[in-house]
Hints:
Elements: H1 6-18, E1 24-26, E2 32-34, H2 49-63
Antiparallel strand pairs: 1-2
Helix pairs in contact: 1-2
Amino acid sequence: LHDGNGDDYESLHAAMEDEGFVRWIVDSRGSKDRLPTAEYNLPDTDIERAEVLDRAKRAANSVKQKPAPWIIVTQSAGRTWSGLKPWQV
């Protein structure tokens, strides 16, 4: 979101969740780690990247349409990370 405030991002998190996205990833031990702000994961799915993009656009546009949000969708064959905090609900 461009020039989004805290309320905008809370709304975005809720809209992304409604589209099936989560804000965490699972490590090799099965523990959930929090993703950086405004990064999302769509776990356990085999849908095409275009559909993932459509879901993300729908969520972001429901919060703030102008200027158009910048969205990048990537497909991962695996991840390695460091420094993420544990997910706590």
